Amino acid sequence: MNVSINQKAVDLPEGATVADAVAHLAPKPPFAVAVNLQFVPNARYAAHALQPGDQIEIIAPVTGG
After folding, report:
1. Which of 38, 43, 45, 65 is the most buried (most CB within 10 A)?
2. Domain segments of the chain: what residues?
3. Quick one: CATH architecture of 2-59?
């Protein structure tokens, strides 16, 4: 299934979840995840099924001033 992770096309297996997308990118904590601009809490990563064409954003907080 084709999805977008941080604006890059990625092919994940059918039935993939947010947890699979996070594992694919392997970001360094802390980070937050949104699917189609909707925040997904980390407790729901394994339960949130992805659909073809979903846009996943995995972002880290920015500090400084």
Report:
1. 45
2. 2-59
3. Roll (3.10)
pLDDT digits (tens, 9 = 90+) for 14-62: 999 999 999 999 999 999 999 999 999 999 999 999 999 999 999 998 8
DSSP string, the chain: -EEEETTEEEE--TT-BHHHHHHHH-PPSS-EEEETTEEE-GGGTTT-B--TT-EEEEE------
Q: Is 44 helix (H, G, I), strand (E, B) or coil?
A: helix
Angle ∠(53,27,13) on CA atoms, nearest 5 = 35
